[in-house]
Amino acid sequence: MSQEQLRPVRVGLLGIGTVGGGTFTVLKRNQEEIRRRAGRGIEVTMVADLNTELAKQVVGDAAQIVSDARAVIANPDVDVVVELIGGYGIAKALVLEAIAAGKHVVTANKALLAVHGTEIFAAARAKGVIVAFEAAVAGGIPIIKALREGLTANQIQWVAGIINGTTNFILSEMRDKGLDFDVVLKEAQRLGYAEADPTFDIEGVDAAHKATLLSAIAFGIPVQFDKAHVEGITQLSATDIKYAEQLGYRIKLLGIARRRDNGIELRTHPTLVPMRRLIANVEGAMNAVLVQGDAVGTTMYYGKGAGAEPTASAVVADLVDIARLLDAAPEARVPHLAFQPDEMSTLPILPLDEVVTSFYLRLRVADKAGVLAKITGILAEQGISIDAVIQREADEVSGEDGNQTDLIILTHDTTEGGMNKALAAMQALPTVLAPIVRVRKEELA
Ligand code: HSE
Questions:
Q1: pTM here?
Q2: Closest Cα to residue 85, out of 104, 102, 105, 64?
Q3: Which residues contact 130 (CB under 8 A, 6 or more apart)?
Q4: What's the gap between Cα 270 and its chain centre?
């Protein structure tokens, strides 16, 4: 049979909001280009959305519109179900039902896969269907494809990414304008960069979901969001961003997955990054992911991590992959998590105490003889080596009297557990006058 004679792949969209609308638009606008690449057409034949009026406005008469997502799953003429509802609730039930009905699934739902991925991928394997999720991590950046296929020759050593645009926008504004978190968050909400309920973004949960997926495909481990360290940006102050800048660093919310001999570090937290690194200069709502492989060295992927058409770009790429593989044996496919399912690694996710990083510390201290010596003595007792120290003169500490000063210390690599012990001892000193600020630092060399 010539490729021209293959029937189009029939797609059912669950949700016609921002990404669903973008997917419909991109598929329609680029249909000829996509057909030439996929070897067959890809058509949205059915759309489910509770808001059928909105669906009608977006797709017109081009597809059947229903309010019940299960009608799409039950339709034997739908080959692929695209889940764009989000969350762990009804989306999970619908994805599992679509798999049970023998449909391939494309999803942008990082929360669902990071938490329930093991169950979903197992169900998909048992049924011989694909669950594709390029759009779930860093929106339009093809990072899943790059890690799973382009870098397949490598032993991946670490992945570190700015994988949440909302928080990167807020951090960029805090730095540019010297404003505090709360003020910038309100502005970001007014401009539509942050959601009305921004909890998942600002608390680091969204980035940690994505880091969890990256860790699984980088190292061939199961998705284990429950073992990830998750820390957002709500406690960051403009003061620390300014001091970091003076020391040659920017603060970014990074999702990090790093291989160590005895396990995998999986953590999301604000991180000082040297200003000279490309990733430190990724500003506004943009995303970027660095991957370090043993053969290739460091590679970086940059682009829009959200938005209608950037995310649709990833959804459609998955649809093209499925279109090419529709009639191929399941064994011919790239495994969901990059490694063959019976070859998954048992390397554990390391407890946070065993994570190794360097640190930025800010201590508000009494400005008198012997204070610095006591503090450096405590760090030395824990075997923590100091990289740099600056002290801001008392008159630079706004609103305080001249007997206090800010002491800023950068350390070399140490364990989190060792640092916690040192922090407890330093905090107990009568000359340390406020809670010590600690931000992790990565050289990403
Ligand atoms: N809310 C995310 C972000 C996009 O701000 O990057 C979807 O994951």
A1: 0.96
A2: 105
A3: 104, 105, 124, 321, 322, 325, 333, 336
A4: 13
Q: Is 186 a catalytic residue?
A: no
Alpha carbon distance 362, 406 (integer Å): 7
- Fold annotation for 3-141+308-337: Rossmann fold (3.40.50)
Q: Is residue 416 in contact with ligand 1, taking CB distance under 6 Å?
A: no
**Looking at the DSSP assignment, which residues form a beta bridge with residue 83?**
14, 107
CB-CB contact of 110 with 47 (8 Å): no
Ligand 1, pocket-test mutation among 107, 109, 143, 164, most atoms within 8 A of CB: 164
Atom of ligand 1 nearest to the CA of 306: 4
| Per-10-residue mean pLDDT, the chain, length 445 | 75 97 98 97 98 97 98 98 95 98 98 98 97 97 98 98 97 96 95 89 98 98 98 96 96 98 98 98 97 98 97 98 93 95 96 98 95 97 97 61 88 98 98 97 96
Tokens representing 193? 């960069």
Ligand 1 centroid distance, CA of 213 (Å):
15
Reading the block at residue 165, the tokens are 């645009």
In sequence order, the 6+-apart residues with CB closer than 8 A to the CB of 14 are 20, 48, 49, 69, 72, 81, 82, 83, 84, 85, 94
Decide whether any atom of ligand 1 lies within 6 Å of the 23 Cβ.
no
User: How many angstroms is it from 196 CA to the middle of ligand 1?
Assistant: 13
Could you tell me the two tokens for 222?
């199961």
Superfamily of domain 354-441: ACT domain (3.30.70.260)
The CATH number that domain 143-304 falls under is: 3.30.360.10
